[in-house]
Amino acid sequence: MCQITDLSPLSNRLRLLVLFIFIWYFNGCAVMKKVEVKPPPLPIYPEEKIERNDFSIAKGDDVIGRLAVIRLAKGDTLPDIARHFSLGINAISAANPGVDVWVPETGERIMLPLSFILPDAPRKGIVINLAAMRLFQFKGDNKSLAVSTYPLGVGTIERPSPIGQMYVVRKVTQPTWHVPASIAEDHRKKGDPLPAKVLPGPENPLGEYALYLSKPTYLIHGTNKPASIGLRATNGCIRLYPEDVKILYENTPVKTPVCIVNQPYLLGQCNGVVYMEVHAPPEDLDAVEFEKIYKKLRNIEKESGRTLDWSKVKKELAEARGIPVPIFEILQGSEKGAAKTIEVKHPEKLYGRPEIPELKTEAWSVLAAEVRDEIDAVRLAAIINHQGPQIPARVSSKNDSYRVIAGPFNDISEAKDAIKRLKIDLEIDGILIEPVKKR
Fold this sequence. Notes:
The chain is of the alpha+beta class. Among the domains are: about 45-260, L,D-transpeptidase catalytic domain-like (Beta Barrel); about 365-435, 2-Layer Sandwich (Alpha-Beta Plaits), CATH 3.30.70. The protein is about 25% helix and about 25% strand. The chain has helices at about 10-30, 80-85, 90-95, 180-190, 240-250, 285-305, 310-320, 375-385, 410-425, and strands spanning about 45, 55, 65, 70, 110, 115, 125-130, 135-140, 145-150, 155, 165-175, 175-180, 195-200, 210-215, 220, 230-235, 240, 255-260, 265-270, 275-280, 325-330, 340-345, 365-370, 395-400, 400-410, 430-435. The strands form 7 sheets. Strands 2-9-8-7-18-11-14-15-17 form a 9-stranded mixed β-sheet, covered by helices on one side. A hairpin with a 4-residue loop joins strand 8 and strand 9 (about 145-150).
């Protein structure tokens, strides 16, 4: 067992050093030989049996939802599965390390991380945890408390989303985007000049609904790039799937409080079991937030009079899979009350999955790439298909190579616009393919 003495007397610099050594020590402990154990088969439930967004909160509990697994069908991508089950790409990727995001294997069994530890914040109004890229909207009171939760896209490292207390000042449907000067300058440098304002429509990055926050220039809004949910991809605003922001908009009155936190390490209790959820790998250690969790863990030991299994803590910190993992039973045998993982049946159709229209030779199209490896071609076509707004693309074979062709487009203007977007967004030099004239 690894132990650390009380850190309170140490200077700030030494405290950080000790915390980093603690993480290094845990990662450096003897590694046991991994033995692959085939999981037992699970009964398969219809997808309606697992809740995505709305949960009741039992008194004294901090953990909601349950984990599930699903077997992938041919042509599935992780962004498609994520959107159907109201998850962000960050969550489904972290829960399934090593799985190809764009070309996963057909029949592969993947985890749906639909269990969450609530942030350490007042359960009132809207609470956003940037580290988890998840929004929680609380309803009711201490006697009957419920929560709705949705995945998010958040600000980049260069332009992070704000932290702190604020509230909703106004709500707008079909918002107009007034382009900030800094963003306009970024696009100008990339050869993509923007107008002073973007009217409602498919090109508007705010989507169809926007909630303006009391902190000026920051919004909670929809998006025309749904594959960006679960990424640090915004200029500081909070971005939701179009279907999620519509529900949030309809259920959020003006003046609703909004608390934004950044908590990569979460602890919570459910049915007498302490769970830990980690959203940051060791190399991205947030020493301040980690110290808070470390103190809570020590308090649990002190109050229970028992020693924590620090190997479980170490494992969770190292893997950072973003799912609640049981690390301590307050009462022996209490873990039997935890919700068990279930397997859900693959839906007939994935909600929001990009549809690819038939490519017609008499229409304009664009050659995005020609490669030798079929998997590389399928991956690139999937990435292009998930641009926002969508650029339809598919793979066709030619001799001993594979071509990624985007289209069809109604006219040469649309095709040239696609070439421009491929260059700016993906650094792809597309080649215009003229339509074949009918004889």
